[in-house]
Amino acid sequence: MIIVQSITTTYVPIHQASLSRACPYCGQGTLQADYFQLRMETRGYMKMTKKVAGLVSCPSCHNELHPLGWDDLLEEAYLAEQKQAVLQPKTFRLKWGFKLFLALLLLLFIGIGVWIYSTITGEQGRNLVSRDPKVGDLMLGMQIAYNTTEQPHPRFRWLKVAQVTDKDVTVMPYAGGCETNSCSVPPESDLQTQQHFRLSRAELPERFSLNGTDENGAELHFFVAEARRP
What we know:
This protein is of the alpha+beta class. The protein is built from 3 helices and 11 strands, in the order E-E-E-E-H-E-H-E-E-E-E-H-E-E. It has a 6-stranded antiparallel barrel with strand order 6-7-8-9-10-11. Strands 1, 2, 3, 4 and 5 form a 5-stranded antiparallel sheet that branches.
């Protein structure tokens, strides 16, 4: 979709002078020259240009004299008075509403950039930990169940790697959990050091899955949604 923004052109008066030339319409011996500076405006900005336009008219009969009908003396007098005109400074100013729109657009791009960065770095962290887990790594696991008629409601828990062998990892869970994968890492005081889950690493690099048992021999299955290396 192409958006065409309309431009409003305004001629701002900057100078007025009397020219000692006779009017070809009524014979009056004095003409009036008016000079204007071009200002352009849209809904987003206002721009004062250096372009100058002029108008020569008769103050008696109010007829306008077109430049094609000027003689050399009238043109010289017109140009001489134009040099006396004081121009307003050339400016460009954004309107408040457009500034707000640009600010919101910038915030949107920043938000998208942060999301892309966090997604990429989060995926890199998960891949790094899943390929080569080390003691102290953190994993956000979604506890799941296999071979059941009813899948349990997803519950996410942070796990901390306590021991690593060639075939499995031993993790300690943090107390509590959350229903989404946006939960933050709990404080170290919430680490349940008395609980240990021994989980196989076989499907960790490819499927991000940890399968094993808790200290009581009960089956555990986790899908690793996020991983961090402090």
